[in-house]
Specification:
Layout lengths: L2 E4 L3 E5 L5 H7 L3 H6 L8 H10 L1 H8 L3 E6 L5 E9 L6 E7 L8 H16 L5 E5 L4 H9 L3 E6 L8 E5 L1
Helix pairs in contact: 1-3, 3-4
Length: 168
């Protein structure tokens, strides 16, 4: 396992096609579906395609993407956290998602703050943003806790509902 980021309790590494079963599970959790939306990933093959066309492509094109978050003590993948360059946004976006039973245990803060540090200090990215559904209070709290500040509401991806945009 090639570790990109290490924290007290976590390792972050690049996602691979071997992570497809985890992605299938994560993308179909109630919190993902409620706050991020259905990505039509309903099989291992769908999950592999999601990885190929998303984060694996981003590693090649941008040198960064989403990373698997591994709990050190169990060795299990518990979430993902990373960076994405979206065509419709001018800056690099930080994002995160964890299995529902692991939310509010400090893993999100640990992974997101380390990822932000990696983006700013290792990758030398000048500005990081985050977009979030205004109903997702836990994610908004985490975004604020890592130091991003609310800037404005934006329309994103053809969605009816506006999203909150935070920046640092």
């Amino acid at each position: 396992m090639q570790i990109l980021i290490e924290t007290e309790r976590l390792y972050l590494r690049k996602l691979t096609l071997e992570d497809a079963p985890f992605m299938l599970e994560l993308l179909n959790t109630p919190t993902w579906l409620q706050f991020i939306g259905d990505r039509n990933v309903h099989s291992i093959e769908d999950a592999e395609n999601y990885l190929k066309n998303g984060t694996l492509k981003s590693y090649q094109e941008n040198g960064f993407g989403f990373y698997a978050v591994i709990e050190k003590t169990s060795g299990k993948t518990i979430g993902m956290c990373g960076l994405i360059k979206r065509d419709s946004l001018p800056d690099i976006d930080i994002g995160f998602a964890f299995l529902p039973h692991l939310i509010s245990k400090g893993f999100g803060y640990e992974a997101a703050s380390a990822t932000l540090d990696y983006a700013l200090n290792t990758l030398k990215i000048k500005r990081i943003i985050a977009i979030v559904n205004p109903d997702n209070e836990k994610s908004i709290g985490l975004i604020k806790k890592i130091g991003l500040h609310f800037e404005k509401m934006i329309k994103f991806g053809g969605e009816e509902k506006e999203l909150m945009l935070f920046g640092i």
